What we know:
Blueprint: H1 2-44, H2 50-53, H3 62-65, H4 70-89, H5 96-99, H6 108-113, E1 122-124, E2 131-136, H7 147-155, E3 158-163, H8 180-196, E4 204-209, H9 211-225, E5 234-238, H10 251-254, E6 270-272, E7 285-286, H11 287-310, E8 319-324, H12 333-339, E9 349-353, H13 371-378, E10 384-390, E11 397-403, E12 409-417, E13 446-447, E14 450-451, H14 470-473, H15 481-500
Parallel strand pairs: 2-3, 2-4, 4-5, 5-8, 8-9, 9-10
Antiparallel strand pairs: 1-3, 6-7, 10-11, 11-12, 13-14
Helix pairs in contact: 9-11
Amino acid sequence: MNSWRNAAFNAARWPWRVFRRLSKYAIVILLSVVFGFTLYAVLALPDLKPWHTEVLDEEFSALRDGNLDFDGYLKLEARLFDAMRLRVAAWDHSDEAYVYSRYNADGNVNRLVEGAAYNRSFRLAADTPIGQALLLHGLSDSPYSMKALADSLHTRGFEVTVLRLPGHGTFPSAMTQMTLADWTAAVRLAARDVASRTPPGRPFYLGGYSTGGTLALQYALDALDDGSLRKPDRILLVSPAIEVPDVAVIANVLDLLSSVPLPVLQKVHWQEIGVEYDPYKFNSFAINATRQVSRATRKLQASLVRAMKSGGMERMPPIITWQSVVDSTVGASGVADVLYANLHGPANRLVLFDVNRRRALGSIQRPGTSGLIERLSQGKRSYMLDVVVNRSEQTDDVSVRQLAPDGGIGVRETSLHWPETLVSLSHVAMPFPPDDPVYGLNPGSGRNGIPSIGSWLYRGENGAVTISLGSLTRPRSNPFWQLVDEDIAALVEADRSGFAH
């Protein structure tokens, strides 16, 4: 009898013992990751500069400033940039890192961008706009990344507002403090203002690039059930962040030891510490940035699941997305399998930019890059799929294959072609035209005698320059931007006619 009781007792305790043992293993692994990353950050990352450590108190906070309207947001933003200028004036201007940085008002970078006005929110006004648009930039970017799309809409009669998301445009240190709640509150107050400027019978567009696309979609999903939010009439997405690698969840603990008040541990805030030469994008990247975009994408995915179960996806506005099939930042499968797989109707369109399929490049291209396009082309879809692709393997000329949900196939010929040395587009290239003065790849791109960052193509030994050689070969602008511009023209014309009636 006692042996039976002991066996029963041991059997009851077995799950608890397994749980305790697994918990111990998990804690050991967690601590190993935290201490391992801390050691890497302290020993391997470059020294911090003032723009990594000094924090501006005037940045928008949802907790403190959530009741502001958009005009109040702009006034707070003006104070933020005034405070930034005062901080920069107090730095050591003889430091070489400062001399060649975006913060040197007399340096080549600022000559190129003429003071970098588009680090701040801006509005392209119209006297009698046919509609209103709100555009949102990506993580570590600035409103400048939406400038070309804003110009395209504005040329067609839209008034366009581009919002600077909290944590951007000033010092990279702001990324260590920003939160998803800050972004959400800022998007809502800007959308409220833009919607109030949209008369009845006129369209309201909402668009975003990368993380800005995440926030645009989240707002649209929230608007399905919240009558206080004006639902957009159309959503424009450029390389949206729909999902990020599962490993991003580790960002919740990686910088755990940065809270210890030791100067050397401040490096633990950072995944990457880069030279800040780019006038409109931070090259340094904070752990908190990964944490917040991970939270944003997980929240978006949960909202999409709820909308699918409740039938809300049927009430979503039409969505058009421009996406490179090779995207090392957010990937391309998320937008296809998580978002578009649950959209219905040909008004929704996914435009995929394929890699350069010229036969001569086949030996250096990574196998499998055609997998997503082949799968989507052959599978059952309820949305339009456009594929920007070589006309044939023997030519750099480009055409657009248009695949309808009913199986119909059309071809849109273009006058465009792949640049000779370009193998693919990239995440950071998508929103910029090839003649962009800051990121253009066309010969002669630039301003004031300064060549554009996108036209840099230098060679050298590792360690010869202060930036990674990989950053010089990743394309920074889109040679096929004309197709995006033509898509915008067609959408606006269709909506102009539709709303007029």
